[in-house]
Amino acid sequence: MKIPSKFLFSDLMHHRVRCDEGIDHGPGLFPWMYPSFHRLLGWISSPSNFKITREVWRLDQLKGVSQHEVYVKGKPSSSDQKTIDRFPTLMNADIFNNDGEKIGLIADFVFEPTKGKILYYLVSRSNPSIPGSSRWRLEISHILDQQPGSISCDLNSLEDLPIYKASIKEELLNRSRQWRTQFQDITGKASNRLEGWLEEQVNENDINSDDNINSSVSENFYDDWIDDEDNSQSFNRMSSSKRKSSFSNGKNMDPWI
User: Fold this and answer.
1) What pTM, to 2 d.p., does this model score?
2) Torsion 142-145-149-153 (CA) sign
3) How far is 78 from 138, CA to CA, in rounded Å?
4) 1-5, 110-114, 120-124: segment of lowest average pLDDT
5) Distance of alpha carbon 203 from alpha carbon 225, whole angstroms
6) Is 158 in contact with 125 (CB distance < 8 Å)?
7) CA 146 → CA 24, 128, 143, 150, 178, distances in Å?
8) Domains in the chain: how many in total?
9) Maximum distance among all alpha carbons in the chain?
10) Does residue 195 share a domain with residue 158?
11) In a 3-state reduction of DSSP, which class is residue 115?
């Protein structure tokens, strides 16, 4: 029976109205609003589908809320559908962005039952009667101007608004965007790592190539030096043997001749 501090208007419309005399006055149909100040003054119910009369309830008559019914105190005011159609409202009003393009329409709103203050509106991209369609949260601060049936906002698209309820299609789109972003991040990181690894390999190959060249030059130089040293030693040994043989034969001959 407790009245919630915040109430979704569509939830109020799903409850049947029962007065303190125990009479069922039917389900809610339409809001009674004061659009200029974004307030809910009451709502309209239909006691029967076969009657053209409508019953108008003030918001301060609301005394309790159960799972399927709302309880009111007092009697309603009677009206007809033609009169109710002239009530000013922002329900189903078209929403236009900064460029004057239609981006959606008002599908619902959240209000305070004690004061009737509308906290924010819920926007639908297309027909709000389509079940499971997405809802975006439109703060009143985004509204620049309002006329009967239209609202101008400081927005570019509905993606500028936080999503209140996502349809299956919208959830798939959001997830695909997240997956695409994650895949791009992973691909970018992998590409950077591959480029870094290739640069390291190129640098290592350059260093190894320089080391091989230096090693080859050093080995050739060492081999040439060893060959020269061996040739010099062989020549010296041969010359020495000739000198000894000459002196041993008693001949004072020049060994170099």
Assistant:
1) 0.65
2) negative
3) 33
4) 1-5
5) 33
6) yes
7) 36, 20, 7, 6, 35
8) 3
9) 161
10) no
11) coil
